[in-house]
Design goal:
The structure holds two protein chains of two kinds. Chain A is mainly α. Helices cover 73% and strands 0% of the residues of chain A. Chain A has a single domain, classed as ABC transporter involved in vitamin B12 uptake, BtuC (Orthogonal Bundle), CATH 1.10.3470. Chain A is globular, with a radius of gyration of 21 Å. By secondary structure, chain B is of the alpha/beta class. Chain B is built from 13 helices and 14 strands. In chain B, the strands form two sheets. In chain B, strands 6, 7, 8, 9, 10, 11, 12, 13 and 14 form a nine-stranded mixed sheet that branches. A five-stranded parallel sheet of chain B has the order 2-1-3-4-5, sandwiched between helices. In chain B, strand 6, helix 7 and strand 7 form a beta-alpha-beta unit. The chains are: A mainly alpha, B alpha/beta. Chains A and B meet through helix 3, helix 4 and helix 14 of A and helix 1, strand 2, helix 3 and helix 4 of B.
Chain lengths: 338, 398
């Protein structure tokens, strides 16, 4: 709003000034405000809870995966850091929460925070090293981090269960009251609440000056250097934050399914979340909310209808998106509106 | 989310449609969880064929008015989180009365606690992790445990002139079971283990390990890896390094000498000894009948294996239970029936469920790879009758 006060007087004396800059200023001033359609995903999530009580375990996994994709969107879509190792943080969060629960600390909320913190730490340390590079080198470095963690988890089978996965997690009721039931009600609402808080946080970041400078770094890193923006520090900060959020997502899945395995750290997990994000639309904050449900529900439906050959239909869906909807569903809808 | 809603509405419509159908008086709903994708899909396919063949052959024997409905789901391989969710959905949404199937042990271990919570009997048709029936009183298993098979293998090796053996297993629970059981059987009978290696499941090149074994010069080597691509890779390295010519005897489990894989291995496996609960080369009349039904349904070339027979016998147990209860049973009635279920007519010989452990009691066969009618087969040459799972006797419940 400060900009409004500063800029407007300069424009007013020039009667012939075109309207466009004024509109742009207003748009800038208003861009962080909530819009009516931003309530849609949440309304849909609550409606799904009421309408489809027998799909809640899947719903909880979708909600947690949305958070994972949202965190990937922060690094890929906003900061332009191309990563193939985002599962490293997802897995770290999941294993942290899981190992705590196996060894007698099943309190979910502290477990969730511990998972977030551990993942953020790994994100900070690895980001401090890998973010010195860019482009393909960076891509390979992120892949290396995830692979190293994968092999570490594989080797440390006394701690992680290795290829068998972490069995026997005991997650306590939330606030000592709400048990994780077999129908997945508690798990669903728990994931929904955590996703909502994380979304508020992510939205706040994206619309802050910090978020703007990230977009600047993505669009033109040289200019950002030239105007004196601390590019490396900002990239490291968003990388750490996104790692933490990915860790939260991993811990959520671990706690609601009661299991962590090596697949939480593998390349398929890193690639899968990118695919879902790309289907939805990258760098738009809501891509995750569209791509993840679409992909996971399709996957679920296809595998129920045709348990033997369902991968074919998933493949077909991917091909259609790549051919007809570059920029994802959101990109497509933007193009249609124009 | 909108998409979720639309897909959801479509689902709701489908669900309403299903509800509107007049429920047949006695339809027994069985949730069948199997692996149809990923590296274990071949095993899943054999299991699926065994189950479907039994249903096809015996559907007419069901009591009048009773039908069974198989709700089939894919667990995508050893992914316990997927398996658990699928089982959850089968129980809460499809309201199945029984669960059945499951190839991978970690998956079965993840499903077992649900069966205890929901009181749904779970007939495990393959997953061999030794302690799974201890997790839930509603688990019954018709396949085998690695202890049941590897311990007799160790005993046989020690009693037949092999004094020094090397052990190499995949680094996961079934591998650890096989290693411990073989070692016990071998050393209790005077053998000596001169080396042990655990191979990560991510590793498919067995050359370095087999080279190390060759250099250690044991008289015999015991190898356990999962069936499928692992077993094929082991045999390839075995041939490349010429361990047979170096005078080393390979002893293994049926997983490595899978019946339907033998024709793809050339003459390399000739002479390899393995222990198992089923060989398609068995000459029992029950097996001949099974084979002819199999070949009629799935072409002359198709070869059933231990997975198929697990599916076949699992369905036999379920059918017998349905016949005994005329399709009306509580979970506990079903479990009581399964606990004392016997089948003297299985293709693998007489089998019975041990009421104490809910694991199977069966013959274990020692088999040698030989040429029969021009193609390789696991020919049974020694039978150890009615073996109980030795691990549960060595480790009584606390």
């Amino acid at each position: 709003m400060a900009t409004e006060g500063l800029v407007r007087p300069r424009l007013k004396p020039a009667p012939r000034a075109p309207l466009a800059p004024q509109q742009a200023i207003d748009a800038f001033a208003r861009r962080h405000r909530y819009r009516w359609w931003e309530a849609l995903p949440w309304a849909a999530a609550i409606a799904a809870y009421v309408l489809f009580p027998s799909y809640l375990p899947l719903g909880a996994q979708i909600l947690a995966t949305i958070l994972f994709a949202l965190s990937a969107d922060l690094v890929l879509g906003y900061a332009g850091i191309v990563t193939l190792g985002h599962a490293a943080f997802f897995g770290t969060g999941a294993y942290t929460a899981g190992i705590l629960a196996v060894h007698g600390w099943g309190e979910p909320i502290t477990g969730l925070l511990a998972g977030t913190a551990a993942a953020a730490l790994i994100g900070f340390v690895s980001g401090w090293i890998v973010l010195r590079t860019t482009g393909l080198t960076l891509l390979m470095q992120t892949l290396v981090v995830a692979t190293l963690l994968y092999e570490a988890a594989n080797k440390a089978s006394w701690l992680t269960g290795g290829d068998d996965g972490l069995q026997g997690m005991e997650v306590w009721p939330i606030f000592g009251q709400f048990r994780f039931d077999m129908f997945g009600r508690t798990g669903y609402l728990y994931c929904l609440a955590v996703l909502f808080l994380c979304w508020l946080f992510a939205r706040h970041i994206v619309y802050s000056p910090f978020g703007r400078s990230l977009t600047g770094i993505r669009e033109n890193v040289r200019r950002m250097h030239a105007i004196g923006a601390p590019v490396r520090r900002r990239r490291l900060i968003i990388y750490t934050i996104a790692a933490g959020l990915a860790g939260t997502a991993g811990a959520l899945i671990a706690q609601t399914t009661g299991f962590v395995g090596l697949s939480f750290l593998n390349l398929e997990r890193s690639g899968g979340v990118l695919i879902m994000l790309i289907i939805g639309g990258v760098g738009r904050l809501y891509g995750a909310f569209i791509g993840v449900p679409l992909y996971m529900i399709a996957q679920n439906r296809f595998s129920e209808i045709e348990p033997v050959y369902w991968y074919f239909w998933i493949g077909l869906l991917m091909v259609l998106v790549v051919v007809f909807a570059r920029g994802g569903i959101l990109g497509l809808s933007e193009r249609l509106r124009q | 989310m909108l998409q979720q809603k639309i897909a959801g509405l479509a689902l709701a419509a489908a669900a309403l449609g299903a509800l509107a159908m007049p429920a047949a008086a006695q339809t027994v709903k069985i949730g069948f969880i199997d692996t149809y994708s990923g590296p274990f899909a071949q095993a899943g396919d054999e299991l699926d064929k065994g189950v479907k063949l039994y249903i096809k052959e015996h559907e007419k024997d069901l009591p009048p008015g009773v039908k069974i409905e198989l709700v089939t789901r894919d667990d995508t391989g050893p992914n316990p989180d997927v398996a658990k969710r699928v089982a959850q959905e089968l129980i809460t949404r499809d309201h199945v009365q029984l669960l059945a199937g499951e190839i991978a042990s970690p998956n079965a271990a993840a499903i077992a606690p649900l069966t205890a919570e929901a009181k749904i009997p779970f007939v495990i048709m393959n997953a061999a992790g030794v302690n799974i029936p201890r997790i839930s009183p509603y688990v019954v298993r018709v396949s085998f445990t690695l202890w049941q098979i590897s311990l007799p293998m160790g005993q046989w090796a020690a009693k037949n002139g092999f004094k020094k053996a090397y052990v190499a297993v995949s680094d996961f629970i079934p591998g650890h079971d096989a290693e411990a059981a073989f070692t016990k059987g071998f050393t209790d009978n005077g053998g000596e283990i001169i080396g042990t290696t655990r191979i990560p499941l991510s590793q498919l090149d067995f050359t370095p390990i087999l080279q190390r074994i060759k250099d250690a010069k044991p008289q015999a080597v015991f190898i356990f890896v999962p069936a499928g691509k692992y077993a094929t890779a082991v045999m390839k390295a075995w041939a490349d390094l010429g361990l047979k010519d170096a005078g080393i005897q390979l002893v293994t489990t049926q997983d490595v000498m899978l019946d339907e894989e033998l024709p793809n291995m050339g003459d390399i496996p000739l002479g390899i000894v393995s222990a198992g609960n089923y060989s398609s080369a068995a000459t029992r009349p029950q097996n001949k009948a099974f084979l002819s039904a199999w070949n009629q349904a799935y072409t002359e070339k198709a070869i059933p294996d231990m997975f198929s027979v697990g599916g076949w016998d699992g369905m036999a147990a379920i059918f017998d239970m349905i016949k005994a209860t005329k399709g009306k049973f509580t979970p506990d009635e079903a479990m009581n029936f399964f606990k004392t279920w016997k089948n003297p007519e299985s293709p693998r010989g007489p089998i019975a469920i041990d009421p104490e452990t809910r694991d199977i009691i069966q013959n274990i066969y020692l088999r040698r790879v030989e040429k029969v009618d021009g193609r390789l087969a696991n020919v049974e040459f020694e039978t150890i009758p009615q073996v109980k799972d030795p691990w549960k006797e060595l480790n009584p419940p606390k």
